[in-house]
Each structure stands twice: as C-alpha cells, then as structure tokens.
Amino acid sequence: MDLVVRWSPEAAEDLESILEYIARDSVFYARAVAWKILDISCAIPGQPFIGRVVPEIGDMMVYLDLRVREKNPATADELSEAVREGALMRIRPVLMTVITAFAGLLPIFIFDGLGADVMRRIALPMVGGMITTVFLILVVIPVIYCLWEGRRFERPA
C-alpha cells in the first residue's frame, strides 16, 4: 500500500502561518530553552541557599574601609593597624554565621536514613564554601586591602 500525500493551497497557507509564528517567537523560545538548560537550581535542591554567607565579603570590605578612613593613617604601620582592627570587628559576626550554619548541617552528616546520601552531597559543598569564605573574609581580603592601600605610602626610589 502506497501512502499518497496531496498538497493543497490551504495546507500551504497553514504551514506558512505556523512558520511565521515560530520565526516571530523563536528568540523567546530559544531564551526559555537556554534558561532551562542553564538553570541548575532545578537539578540541585537547596542550591539557592548555598551562597548566603558570601555577601559577608562585601561587609568586610566596607568595615575595613570605614575603619581606615576613621583612623586616617599616615604610615603603612598605622594602615595595617587600622585594617587589623577592622578585621577584628568582623570576626565575631562571621564566626557566628558560620558556626550556626555548621550546627544546621551537622545532623545531615551524623544521621543515616532515607535520602541521607543525597543530602550529604549538598551539605559538603556548603561546608567547603563556608570554610573558603571565612578564609577569604578574615585573611585574604584584609591582606589584599592592606597591599592595595599601602601603595600610597611607598616612596619612589
């Protein structure tokens, strides 16, 4: 049995209108498809909550800058003292935030049960990210700030 397809002018008009519709909205559809492909929050439950500690880095920069501007250092030693005081002002809130997050993640590491292996895969990057963030906030950011602002006090040779 042979299949015979007859092409009518009405079918051609219908196909043309469908192609016009697709061409008109293709940018929107391409954007929607790309967004769904790149949207990893639907693949990893809890992923949107991972980055809640990281904004502390911005707070650290503001506190360091405010402390340095209050002290108005005239030498590199005064600058490093002002940066140290600014870092000490932020150590308590940063550690309180991280310790609270660790306390919340502790049951995920301790208990076994249904879905515990999946939850551990989520909790482990969160803990690693928080440790990295604390290191950045309390060590790297003050050192970089001190080096950057310390350029003012260098004398040309």
From TrEMBL:
Show the Pfam families listed in the entry.
ACR_tran (PF00873), ParE_toxin (PF05016)
GO molecular function terms attached to this record: xenobiotic transmembrane transporter activity
Q: Which organism is it from?
A: Candidatus Kentrum sp. DK
Name this protein carries in UniProt: ParE toxin of type II toxin-antitoxin system, parDE
Q: Which UniProt keywords apply?
A: Membrane, Transmembrane, Transmembrane helix
Residues passing through the membrane, by range: 94-116, 122-148
Q: Name one GO cellular component term.
A: plasma membrane
* UniProt key word Membrane: yes
Q: InterPro entries per the record?
A: Acrflvin-R (IPR001036), RelE/ParE_toxin (IPR007712)
Q: Where is the signal peptide?
A: none
Question: Which domain of life, per UniProt?
Answer: Bacteria
